[in-house]
Amino acid sequence: MLNLILFGPPGAGKGTQSELLMQCYNLNYISTGEVLRSEIKAGSKLGLKAKAIIDAGGLVDDEIIVQIIGNFLRSENRCDGFLFDGFPRTYVQAYILDGLFTRMQTGLNRIFILDVPEEECVKRLLQRAQEQGRSDDNELVIKKRLQEYHEKTLPLLEFYDQSGILTRIDGMGTTEEVFARINKQVTDEINRKQVNIILFGYPGAGRATQADKLAHDFNLTCISTGELLHEELKSQSAMTSQIVPYLSKGLLVPDEIVIRLIEKKLQQNEGTSRGYVFKGYPRTLVQAYILDGILKKKGHSISCVINLQVPFLELVKRLDARGQTAAKMAYDGSASTIVARLEEHEQRTEPVLEYYRIHNQVIDVDGKGSDAEVYDRLKEPVVRTIRNLR
After folding, report:
1. How far apart are alpha carbons 244 and 25 in whole angstroms?
2. CA-CA distance, 291 to 116, in Å (whole number)?
3. What fold does the segment set 2-27+79-191 form as a domain?
4. H helices of the chain, where?
5. CATH of 195-387, one of 1.10.357.10, 3.60.21.10, 2.170.270.10, 3.40.50.300
6. Cα(361)–Cα(358) distance, integer angstroms
7. Does the chain have fewer CB atoms within 10 Å around its N or its C terminus?
8. What is residue 330's predicted lDDT score, i.e. its pLDDT?
9. Tens of pLDDT, residues 106-131
10. Distance in angstroms (rounded) separating the CA atoms of residues 211 and 278
11. How does DSSP classify residue 316?
12. Sheet containing 110-115: order of strands
């Protein structure tokens, strides 16, 4: 999830930038005041408690606030994250928010502070008061609001200062210019996340083409066990003699050898890309467990599984057409061998796909149409998945 806090003095344009962030990243806006009003309007037990306190002229305590905001966070599962305004306001509430996120197995990604000079804030608010006919918003009242903001915000900035997620944004300029500064920081934050994608699909579904496009756009490294085996053969390494007997007889290379090749590839590419696209692996349930283990050793995991769906007859046509080219595979020779290969693939990989479905990691993508059309369909859900990575 993408979770942000946007601080800024009155008149800094926080409301406008919040709207743009919500639209761009499908975030849910959380304002303590709005959440309280919503709970009171719903007539819930917590809402009635809060109303009684407010009606008596008191301030709603943190015990009630934490429950109301916690309920709101857990109930809003249609968004890709949250944007907070007016919460936290104190050290205690900062710890509360941290605890709420911990329970949800997520966290705060970035805190933005819109820096606008006080005289500019006063100028903007006076102009807004004049345009909206708000005679109560005079210079004295505005300066008091600004002083209150600085007094409340400073302790929070000290709380978050050591976290490394505090970012100051120049709030001067047009709305578009300010948003561009914020958006660059958000984009950089998303791009720092490790991404590991598995590309599923029957032979002829276009896995190789789509894997290359994903690797290019998201700075990922493609990993194909077939390519790893051939690279190892060319290198004439110590493992070459172990691989040759299996390939010469058309047999599957044992997992013990494949594991070492994948680990070697990951070691070689450490720090050179943000993650991997696996094509043609895993092919069995055992290999799915192996891949989970390999990535866990690196502190990573599978981000999502793209399943390219192409009708059986269309696959046969594609493979038959490939059989007429220099790129043909051994099984492209006839309709019977093509069908046999597709049936074998189904038997081996369906349990693997089901394994990832159980963990809600599979994204089914219509594989019909041009390469560009298919890629357009799969790119959007991949982007959303990356935003939602914890």
Report:
1. 50
2. 50
3. Rossmann fold (3.40.50)
4. 14-25, 32-42, 45-55, 62-75, 91-103, 118-132, 139-161, 175-191, 207-218, 225-235, 240-248, 255-268, 285-297, 312-322, 335-358, 371-387
5. 3.40.50.300
6. 8
7. C
8. 64
9. 888 899 999 999 999 999 999 888 88
10. 8
11. H
12. 28-31, 81-85, 2-7, 110-115, 166-170
Beta strands 304-309; 362-366: pairing state: parallel
Helices 240-248 & 225-235 angle (0-180, nearest 10): 120
The span from the CA of 183 to the CA of 112, in Å, is 11
Give the phi and the psi of residue 323 in degrees, each rounded to 5.
-65, -15
Whether the bond between 381 and the residue before it is cis, its omega within 30 degrees of 0, is: no
Locate 6 and state its tokens.
């946007």
Average pLDDT over residues 98-108: 84
Instruction: Return the residue matching tokens 């249609």.
Output: 78
> Hey, what's the torsion of the CAs at 368, 371, 373, 375, to 10 degrees?
110
Domain boundaries, the chain: 2-27+79-191, 195-387
**Which token pair is 202?**
């029957």
Partnered with residue 304 across adjacent β-strands are 197
* Residues 349 and 283 sit within 8 Å (Cβ to Cβ): yes
- In the structure encoding, which two tokens stand for residue 333, read together? 């020779």
Q: Count how many residues are written for the chain.
A: 390
Q: DSSP 3-state assignment of 146?
A: helix
| pLDDT single digits (tens) 202-232 | 888 999 999 999 999 999 999 998 889 888 8
Q: What is the pTM of this model?
A: 0.69
Stated as kind and residue range, the H or E segment containing 362 is strand 362-366
Q: How far is CA 92 from CA 82, 153, 155, 244, 278, in A?
A: 20, 13, 11, 64, 45
The gap from C-alpha 95 to its chain's centroid, in whole angstroms, comes to 24
Amino acid at 13: G
Per CATH, 2-27+79-191 and 195-387 having the same topology is answered: yes
User: Contact, 33 vs 69, CB < 8 A?
Assistant: no
Q: Which two tokens stand for residue 329?
A: 């595979």
Residue 103 carries which side chain, given as an amino acid letter? R
What's the helix, strand, coil split of the chain in %, to 5? 60, 15, 25
